[in-house]
Amino acid sequence: MDWPHDPDGEQGSEGRRVYGHAVIAKKVDDEEDFPLVVDEFVEEFGDDPIRIDYETVVPLREIFEHVEASEFEDIVSMHQGVGKAMRDNDLWFYEGADQFTRTR
């Protein structure tokens, strides 16, 4: 895919050092961007590359297709909603993630 910026550059995954959730979290300011309207966020960042693992990159909109909320009140609720969407749809790379999360 022709990405709007390098998936592994400073705007992306910082040379493959940052994956998934961390790349998404860099796109928000936890004090100024909340409440966050999901559709507006996807409109702005939907084509941005999100590195899932060492060989997989998907557009942000592909992850947010699975997010159930239309708005997040704060950064914690965003992390919870995005994390659930990623885990439930095989977009979560971290081995053993199920040990650290509760199914809601």
How is this structure best summarized?
By secondary structure, the chain is of the alpha+beta class. The chain contains 4 helices and 4 strands. The strands form 2 sheets. Strands 1-4 form a two-stranded antiparallel ribbon. Strands 2-3 form a two-stranded antiparallel ribbon.
Structure description:
It holds the Pfam family DUF5785. InterPro entries: DUF5785. It is a single chain. The chain has 104 residues and is α+β, with helices and mostly antiparallel strands. 32% of the residues lie in helices and 12% in strands. It contains 4 helices and 4 strands, in the order H-E-H-E-E-H-E-H. The protein has a two-stranded antiparallel sheet. The mean pLDDT is 89.
Main attributes?
single chain; alpha+beta; two-stranded antiparallel sheet; 4 strands; DUF5785
Cα radius of gyration in angstroms? 13 Å
Q: How many structural domains can be distinguished in the coordinates? A: 1
Uncertain regions spanning at least 5 consecutive residues: none
Gross morphology = globular
| Mean pLDDT across residues | 89
Please give the share of residues in helix: 25-40%
Beta-strand segment tally:
4
What's the order of the H and E elements? HEHEEHEH
- How would a crystallographer describe the biggest sheet? 2 strands, antiparallel
Lateral arrangement of strands in the main beta sheet: 1-4
Number of helices: 4
Taking the alpha carbons of the first and last residues, their distance comes to: 34 Å
Pfam family, one: DUF5785
InterPro entries: DUF5785
